[in-house]
Amino acid sequence: MYNQKEIAWVGEFFNAFSEQVNHSTVNFTYANADMLKSQSMPYSGNLPTSKDEIVVQESFLGSLGYSDELGQTINIPFSDGTTHDFKLTGILNVKTGDIGRYTAIISKELAEQQYGKNIGMDYYIGLKNAQNMSEEEAASYANTLAQQLEIFDDNVIVRSTYFNLKDENRGSDMLFYFLIGFITFVGSGIVIYSIFYISVANSIRNYGQLRTIGTTKRQIKKMVYREGKLLAAIGIPIGLVIGNVMGYLLVPDGWYWLTTLSVTVGVGLFAFMIVMLSIRTPVKKAAAVSPMEALRYSDYQGKMKESSALHRNITPASLAKRNLSRQKTKSILTILSLSLGGVLVVLISTMLISYDGAAEARGREFPVGEFNIQLNANQSWDTADVSLAGLQQKDLLNADLVNAIESMDGVTGTKRWYYTDAEYRVNDYDDNWIYGFAKEDVSVLEENLIAGTVDHHELVSKNGIILIKDTAENLSLSAQLGDEVKVDFLTKDGQTITKSYTIMGIVSNFNHPAFNMCFAMPEELMNEACKMDCSGTISVISEPDKADTIEASLNQLIDGNSDLVMDTIEESITYYSRNQQLPFGALLIVAIIVVCFSFINLVNTTITNFLSRRQEIGMLQAIGLSKRQLMKMLCYEGMLYSAFATLVTLLLGAGLGFLCVQAMKTMNPYFDYSFPWLVILLYLAILLIVQFILISYTTGSLRKKSLVEQIRVTE
What we know:
Elements: E1 7-21, E2 24-31, H1 33-38, E3 43-45, E4 53-57, H2 58-64, E5 73-77, E6 83-92, E7 101-106, H3 108-115, E8 122-127, H4 135-148, H5 160-202, H6 204-212, H7 217-250, H8 257-278, H9 280-288, H10 291-295, H11 316-326, H12 328-354, H13 357-364, E9 371-375, H14 388-392, H15 399-406, E10 411-426, E11 429-437, H16 442-447, E12 449-452, H17 456-461, E13 464-468, H18 469-474, E14 484-490, E15 496-507, E16 519-522, H19 523-530, E17 535-542, H20 547-558, E18 564-568, H21 569-612, H22 614-622, H23 627-667, H24 677-703, H25 707-711
Parallel strand pairs: 2-7, 4-6, 11-16, 13-15
Antiparallel strand pairs: 1-2, 1-8, 3-6, 4-7, 5-6, 9-17, 9-18, 10-11, 10-14, 10-17, 12-15, 13-16, 14-15
């Protein structure tokens, strides 16, 4: 395999053994560098080569009380009471310690010492140009190679999921990153438009002066466009370089020059187009002004709707309203900019707080109880030295263990869960693992019943079995009522027997702490066939305020027995919550960036408006506008911006948040809509603080100048 030119890499993998260390499960595994790289398991240092060398996670070192210094000797206590010294040659940069499981990489020498030279090694082959290869092409090559190397077909697996996920992930990932980029571009475009619009408005008189000495409209346009192109020529390449460097540092193995070049060119052109579109309106405005208009130009002039009233009261509130309505385009743009950031923050925050990690933990692994004590097996008896059926032969989850658990202070009950790694065959499909269910589980099965029956007595008397439809569809298993299922069981005396069962019921799902399986049968039939108790997990139900002491007692109970492991609901909640927080957290960062753009736009608009109206404000003060009234007017203007932005944020953000949660609920039922009140209040508080700072700046600037100086302002 190593000499085949079509093969890019060969990963070696052997799952050696598991141990209970400090109440956590540690999987001791041999894997070469290519295998770890293919599984996105980076490490620092060197992989072990001799039997006394090891690579572990930093969190595991911390649990043992060691630093992350390479070359040190670490002492690992095993469940049988022995301790083993290893030289630390590397650190595995994988975060799984928070769910009670660690991975340790050992040398091939130690694996062979434990299991002999002819260990059942798994070889994972990566083909060159696999990203552009179809499943049929890969399967054809794999079969040809197997024939050349005299490998049996049963020992060759081409992963269909790779090709399915490759296309699905490529599309979904590209859509995800495109949306992030597009949102960022929109936010940037609004800021660019605002800056150029304000810049042109402030330079109108300069353009008018240029027109008086012969500058044409076309030349004015070219001048403003050139300014935009110059800024784009400086800013866009800097952004592209920083983006490419960050992309390479984050995922160096995903770096392809052709892809990078095409994306870089595409993003650069799109960014340049955004700049040109953003300055198009300001350019037209600059070119359209005449020399005479420029001399008397005010950024706040425009057509106003004439009132039929002969006189009206002038108040700070009415002045603020008229000031915003005199320049509707700029006001609407600022409000939309603030609203866009607010809507994104509310939307993503809604997704984050609407997810219920505890509900998912309950739905997947902890239907009842807060602790699961289970047999430490994850392989079938036909491929493993120690299988689930092999552990069940030892009767580890016996009545004495259950009595010891139920006698603990704070434990209110226990429940047995049945399953075994029996092999089944139905309609030319074969696989392994089957659920068992007790009489008290029938009510849950009835809630999910699609067809047939789940009556416990009827199934036992007629050798009936139940099909789990959701799992069967995911595994492409086709079966219906009346089909025969043949099952090979491993019995307590080590013999393999075959039993036949009839599909008598079809349910959509079965809430069970074990992983998803296609079939379930009454535990009486399973125990009878195997001639032993087929319990695989015991759930422990506890009082909430005594969970910590119960966990310590349970750990003490199973210490020294590597065949038993324990999972807690808290670990499961942490795991599922973290999986949801990572993608939505990334989106929240994008939303915060857009909010920053919005606030930049607000600051630009407010300060430019103020500078454009200094003379006007001076005239109002000259005819009696007090400082208190001026403060009120500026406050009202800021409040109007904030009020409209808040209204749009609440209505649109809440509406989109509700729709997105409902959409997510179809894919993950553990989403339940919650309104992010805290995020809304925080956003409003920051908006008000920014408004207060702007008002303080503008009023402070006015205090530094006399009325005469303000009225004399010409620009």
